């Protein structure tokens, strides 16, 4: 079976997927990896990718690209999202990625990021949804919302410049968050999400990316992350409210020891939890399903699916 790879370079993390394309066109994962490199550190204010963020990200990119080739991937698709979109020196990062990892990084617009994430979710959840499917993709620098019934019928999609890293850098100065800092984040999110159209009746919400999967893992105290157990899980509104309150009130050192939470994500998870909580509230829903398959899966299908001209 043909084997391909995708690498998703986000504001906070880099994710690798190596997968075989099955005869029915679906992909079966061979290897999945994730590393937090914080490419987007400081970009919200400086609009420049830092040398530290680029170096950490490039080192992981080289490692992931080499592993994909060693595993027999015929081709590798690489995307970069919010931080690279915002940075003045994004072209320099792309040039270094080509020189060091021999990959072509495509900086994708927010609307395409939303479309690819929705396609990945629709592949797994459309059959379960009794009504329309909604997707929220919470990243380090941006959050995407997509409304539709399947990958071919998207009714609404939009990328908002609110993410776990961006909001942490913009608002958080104390440890733990002060009531004033939390209130400022919540007010900003309520104002931002007021632009969302009302969800259609009977809609199912599915959350993707590291913030959402981490919140589920923390809620269920997963000492070792289990993608199969996370994928398809549910976070109720009550669970999300209680978990958000707990994370916002907990000092950073204590958050770093929580089962299910990567220590490198501990500083930004309160803001991430607030984003998901305010998204659920803005949509007027009672729960959020959890997907472990996000942009990297949509990118793989888009570039190397059986109907792709680039396969």
Structure description:
- The chain has two domains: 3-109, Nucleotidyltransferase, domain 5 (2-Layer Sandwich), CATH 3.30.420.40; 111-291, Nucleotidyltransferase, domain 5 (2-Layer Sandwich), CATH 3.30.420.150.
- Helix 2 runs parallel beside helix 4 (90-101), helix 6 packs across helix 12 and helix 7 packs across helix 12.
- The strands form two sheets. A six-stranded mixed β-sheet has the order 8-7-6-9-11-10, with helices on both faces. A five-stranded mixed β-sheet has the order 3-2-1-4-5, sandwiched between helices.
- The chain has 13 helices and eleven strands.
- The protein is 44% helix and 21% strand.
- It starts with a strand and ends in a 7-residue tail after the last helix.
- With 311 residues, the protein is α/β, with parallel strands linked by helices.
- 49% of the residues are buried.
- Residues 21-301 form the Ppx/GppA phosphatase N-terminal domain.
- It holds the Pfam family Ppx-GppA.
- InterPro entries: ATPase_NBD (IPR043129), GppA/Ppx_hydrolase (IPR050273), Ppx_GppA_N (IPR003695).
- This is Ppx/GppA family phosphatase.
Key descriptive features of the protein:
Ppx_GppA_N; 44% helix; GppA/Ppx_hydrolase; 2 domains; 5-stranded mixed sheet; Nucleotidyltransferase, domain 5; alpha/beta; ATPase_NBD; 6-stranded mixed sheet
